[in-house]
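Appendix B, Record 12. Input sequence as logged:
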Amino acid sequence: MLFRRHLFSFYLFLLLLLGGLSVALSFVIEKEVWVPEVWRLPVVVGAFCLISIVSFYWLIQRPFKKIIREMKALLTGRPYHRLMTSKQDEVGVLAHFFNEVTRSLESISGDVKNHQRLRKELDSAQDIQQLLIPKQPPLVPGLSISAKTRPASEIGGDTFDFYQKNDRYLIYIGDSTGHGIPAGIVMVMVDALLETFIDLKDTLTDILVSLNKYLKPHLKPTMFMTMILMEWLPEKKTLRWSGAGHEYLVHLKAKSNEVQTLKAGGIAVGMLANNAPYVHEQEVVLEENDFVVLYSDGIVEAKNMAGDIYSLERLTTFMQSQVSAQTTPDELFEKIAIDVGRFMEGQIQLDDMTLIVLKHTQKPVQNPVSSTDWHDATPLVH
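Logged structural output:
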């Protein structure tokens, strides 16, 4: 409608101009300026056509050509310019539309660049975190070990590690609150401090108290980590541990096929300024072929599509039905992973998962070949 009104005004202007030209020609004739009669009509028509072409180019074709040129530049990835116009007709509408589209594209392009930068930084943080997770379980006299972790997002809050200090063998499992970057930061801090205090302190209690003392001032009130720090004493066939509010230890006795759930005890590191009153050491003696399983809450709190949780009870019952004297830690790990995956029934993983399976055996332990990367194991979801 606007375009038709624009053309109507344009041709009305031309008609008035033509009328004025005719009057001028008549004046020339009346003043006896000689113009051959045969040329009068062609001159008027030619003038009308010329003015029409020039006016159409200047008022319509030229603005449209400029818009099309900038659109081509945009579509081919070349530099383009905003279209400045005060017109309210179709040309103005197209120019305004082009400006809005390019403004939106520039905003999206900025978001994409920021996302790419954050993605690169996130990948770097993930690489650093992966360097802190041991690639393979260590050789420990009297123990066969399988240990893996699977984060729920790019950066996980679960962690574990193995330390050897002279003739001492230490193992720890930790679970930061939540998951993602904040949990990953806590995990990195704990891992660095723990290795330092293992070298400086002699007892598990002193290690956890010192860790908490130096960690707490650098954390927000909602940031902390539950953990279990263990020491294996090969000559005594004993696991000694000190807990910091973590999940239970599951001890499966090979001879009786009995399962004990041992409370970790303690309170999470980083939760209180002084955790000394809550730190206590406990121990359990292992017999030949006994299993001890450590896990994070991502295992027992895994949900299925109906909202039910996997639970500690299901884990212990399943272990009793699957373990024999010949079962290896890797085999038990795989069986548990498959059972958790089947229980979840396609539900997405909501929390980080870590599982450590220890087996006491007097047989010489071969060089470890299993990876600690859960992605190398049987997938959770089928």
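The beta strands are 143-150, 158-165, 168-176, 225-233, 238-244, 249-253, 258-262, 281-285, 291-295, 353-360.
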